[in-house]
Amino acid sequence: MNRNWPMLGPYQLFLKVMLIGLAILSLSRMGLVVWQWERVSAVTDIWTMFSQGIRADLIIIALLMSPIVLLAPILINRWVWDYTKWILLIWTVLILTILIFMEVSTPAFIMQYDLRPNRLFVEYLKYPREVSAMLWNGFRTEVILGTMFTMFSTWGLICFLKPKFCDYQLEWPEWKVWLMWPLMIIILVLMIRSSFGHRPANPALFARTSDALVNSMFINSTWSVYFAIYSMKDEEKSSELYGKLSNKDILTTLNKLYPWVPTDEHAKNPTMHFQSASRQREKPLNLVIILEESMGASYVESLGGLPVTPNLDKLKDEGWWFEKLYATGTRSVRGIEAVVSGYLPTPARSVVKLTLSQQNFFTLGGLLKEQGYFTEFIYGGESHFDNMASFFIGNGFESVIDQRDYFNPAFLGSWGVSDEDLFNKTHERISEMNKHNQPFLSFVFTSSNHTPYEYPEDRITPYEEPKQTDNNTVKYADYALGQFIERAKKSDYWENTLFLVVADHTNRVYGDDLVPISGFHIPALILGADIEARKIQTVSSQIDLAPTLLSLMGISAHHPMIGRDLTIESEQNAPGRAIMQFADYFALMKDNEVTILRVDQPAVSGEYDLKKRRMNIIGNADQSAQREALAHVLLPSWLYRERRYSISD
To answer: What are the DSSP calls for 29-72, one per residue?
Structure first.
């Protein structure tokens, strides 16, 4: 091997490892391009894809090789070479195996999330039982083939590289190794920075198209995940990646859109204000919030989706039906923070999982507990998942019901008991509360509609074959919901209880738009008590639900939520707006005008066609639109960081 590039001496080992790494990543990218050719060819060309791809690949290869390059003078000398050559071999095989494993994992991740592996890839590793069950039951073939391919590739790398390292004879004297070493460090630094600018290259630099998936294909999966892990240390200030505004400017800007938001940045809780309920009641209503897992608008026929939610489509004529409601994100915890806390999304993890929000953080549970309500979170799986139990117990919820509290459930799947078991438990709990005239808030989170899509036999006629598909599981989830609502209507608590049925997000966030807005469209329905039938046609967000519920319940209170009370006629007829966080993009949609913030790049403006469900990028956003979007994303980060989104003053 040393005869090939004698001028490089032992450093040629590193060069050849780099070339092998580039070959692995380029072949993987080529496969992805062929697979997604229609989307790739629509927004970029092959030369740009692969030239920029190689640039991104050199960054991660240099990062992975940096430990052995930095230690090269110590490892490469004739006194210890017989031992250190094995260290070099093991490290080389390890880093190349990591590259292979991540690329092998990429297609399945894209099919699920329409992006390369990112921070979600890491976050799920904290829950091995749930994830292993999901992978085995839902992606068994992919797991087996991927594992076999990775193992075979590792064996092949060992066979190929072992003689190259172990048979290599050191001919350079130590002084020559040391003399060459500074040049190697300089080359390594240049590869990692990949830029002569003030900042080194990052994944945002490769976001060159209007298609988020294609942007992620420019880079590689290992770097995507590595950068997500690296960025977590700065997530408290992650929103500032889009730009900066003073705290005063944030509040002043938002006050123009939401007149009820105060403008005193020095207040303990800057957004705290008094909301007077538009519905006056002698006794406020109880509240049951049903958060439906992944039940997006694409499954609801009356919202232009598939006919797999007949019960929900029927119930829509019995209450307030939201026709243009949009989720704030693509994860369950993002839906939880929006619905329960009225909290805006950020590029960081949801506050359900963050440290500073585990106590004294505003939730409906905390507010209603102060009003004498018994507050409870009811779930069918293990409540430690996504840190839910800790968040709820620390922020006003007095009780958490999870999988351990179900005795002899009718069905137990990978993610817990079935939705039928969940609703039976819910009926049991709220019936007991109502029996003792105890006001209650029950936050119910379903889980049946989650990969690997398991549900009881003989409940529904499958929409399609095979049985375990999302369409069939949504149909089952709708069946269980319909059964519960029918039972509730015949119960004593129906007349004094308000019900909200809303999706946390949809699992079909796909599309070649920079932010696939159609994938954020979700159903929501408020019914029960004396709620009349009404269609809410204004564009709205999950953060608008809590203020609206408080008004319908007849509760006037101080709270920090900036969302709109849609019981007020002027708000129903307003143009409306929705807020969406997708990967590294933040979108503010006002009616059909969209402003998208990007990391280290200018904000862009677009128009969303509600009928065609497509967005057309117009160009760079004007300063006013950018400022409004920026205020929405900076506010929650600021309030979280300084613990100023509290239960009360």
So the answer is: HHHHHHHTHHHHHHH--HHHHHHHHHHHHHHHHHHHHHHHHHTH
- For 51-110, the pLDDT digits (tens) are 999 999 999 999 999 999 999 898 888 888 888 889 999 999 999 999 999 999 999 889
List CB contacts of 442: < 8 A, sequence separation 6 or more.
287, 288, 289, 376, 378, 426, 429, 430
Given a cut of 60, whether residue 1 has pLDDT beyond it is no
Write out the DSSP string of 516-535.
Answer: -GGGGEEEEEEESTTPPPEE
Question: What is the distance of C-alpha 24 from the center of its chain?
Answer: 28
128-138 helix and 140-166 helix, angle to the nearest 10 degrees:
100
- DSSP alpha helix (H) spans, 114-246: 119-123, 128-138, 140-166, 174-193, 212-218, 221-231
Residue of 333, 287, 115 whose CA lies nearest to 207: 115
Q: Is residue 338 a contact partner of residue 324, using CB atoms and an 8 Å limit? A: no
CA dist., res. 527 & res. 352, Å (int): 27
Residues in the chain: 649
Domain boundaries, the chain: 6-232, 275-567
Q: 462-486: per-residue pLDDT in tens?
A: 999 999 899 999 999 999 999 999 9
275-567 CATH? 3.40.720.10
pTM assigned to the model: 0.84
pLDDT tens-digit map of 357-393: 998 999 999 999 999 999 999 999 988 888 899 899 9
The whole-angstrom separation of Cα 349 and Cα 229 is 12
> Within 10 A of 77 (CB to CB), how many other CB atoms are there?
17
